[in-house]
Amino acid sequence: MSERAFNFSAGPGALPEPVIKQAQQDLWNFQGSGMGVCELSHRGPEFDQILGEALADCREVGSIPDSHHILFLQGGATTQADMVPMNFLNEGMTGDYLETGKWAEDAIKEAGYYAKINGGTVHVAGSTKDEGYTRLPADKECKYVDDAAYLLYVSNNTIYGLQFNRVPKSKAPKVCDMSSDMFSRPIDWSHFDMVYAGAQKNLGPSGQALVVIKDEFMQKAPKNRVGRMHDYSIHAAKESRFNTPNTFAIYLMGQTFKWIRREFGSLDQVDQYNREKAKIIYDAIDNSDFFKGHVQEQDARSLMNITFTTPNAELDEEFCKEAKKHGLLTLEGHRSIGGMRASVYNAFPIEGCRKLAEFMKNFESQHRTQVAGASA
Ligand SMILES: Cc1ncc(COP(=O)(O)O)c(C=O)c1O
Fold first, then answer.
1. Which of 103, 208, 260, 342 is deepest in the core (most CB within 10 A)?
2. How far is the CA of 11 from the centre of ligand 1 (A)?
């Protein structure tokens, strides 16, 4: 690492350093064109190349089959939570949802608007809300509607640090919000009719989404029923250039795909690295009776967002303050649950995990005596 700190932000999160350095150069003069990357026409030859490579590299890195379109769309993941029911939840149909955190709750809320407008039904097949999202609902607890228009679930709960290690057993087409674990591990596309991800964690800048949608599923949306900007078929036909796209976001995502290929070669390797990184921090939690993890179900602990607390809220605050002095930034948990959250997306280096684990050990030995209840 250079003079940059270790940034544990949940998103926008740390970008790969070589990508930032390349962007610095290309912002000034893209490949000797005399124009910066943000100054290129979205219909010009330079951007043709950027978009073409981003699509090809995305397909290669993600092993995305030809049956699925790749779309670069604006408006982040929230717009996708809106567009899915807008396109697919129509009269007499059910949109099935798993309620496993705030982003799932928001998606359910969005679907509610279209259910009202279009005469569809929103059904929550499973939820762990009452348990404070400390675990995921098991398949046997879920009441899936097998002939639903789709089942939408969120693979990684960014706020609580819960991650699916299985694909829900519904028979409906699966739509998955992978915002906080996209390309952090291999994806078996045979399970998914659609995947979307806000870019700002593992892929690039905020305000942008990567959408991978199966053609067969896309064709199920009635034609000309939504405005063109919200119509997946239009974006697919126009190769994500229906209007002026976020050219810089596409460029940066393209550079990130190249970085994944160069640095790791495959998503299996990315997964291995992420497992190694997360283990360092989970071991620091598990080997202590001072720190406590939020997630109770071991198998559902996120490799991307690691949530934990000290014995009390004052110490949590002190922890984050002290950590900052050691160059460990943005460890504060989401405002809805407090405590700490270490987000260690693909670009976050393993050295930062080691430094955090060491800091945790030192913090514990300095503060444990002031805590009643923690054994000496
Ligand atoms: C899992 C998940 N879904 C959706 C969102 C919302 O994304 P956006 O802000 O890009 O709309 C987030 C944001 O952190 C997220 O973590």
1. 342
2. 8
